[in-house]
Write a structure and sequence with these properties.
86 residues; mainly alpha; Four Helix Bundle (Hemerythrin (Met), subunit A); globular; DUF5062_sf
Length: 86
């Protein structure tokens, strides 16, 4: 996996946007105590189910790869000139 600049901030943005996407699809909001690991997996699986993301190979489906996939997704969604893309 290639390291992306501002990866931690991009992941935070991806989780925020992913939670909003899930709510619009009718899913309940995550509790404050829900870990990022669970949020990452739930949002990843929802985006794959909706064919927004290409799924990882079954043997590569783990936390770091899901996290990286969400970072790549949000990186492509942000407009040119966004501060996180610098």
């Amino acid at each position: 996996m290639k390291k992306i600049k501002n990866e931690a901030q991009l992941l935070k943005k991806a989780l925020h946007i992913g939670e909003q996407y899930a709510q619009k699809r009718g899913f309940i909001q995550f509790d404050e105590g829900t870990s990022n690991k669970i949020k990452i997996e739930c949002i990843y699986r929802l985006l794959v189910q909706d064919k927004v993301l290409t799924p990882l190979a079954p043997d590569k489906e783990d936390g770091p790869n899901m996290k990286h996939k969400l970072v790549l997704w949000i990186h492509k969604q942000l407009p040119d000139g966004h501060p996180l893309l610098d």
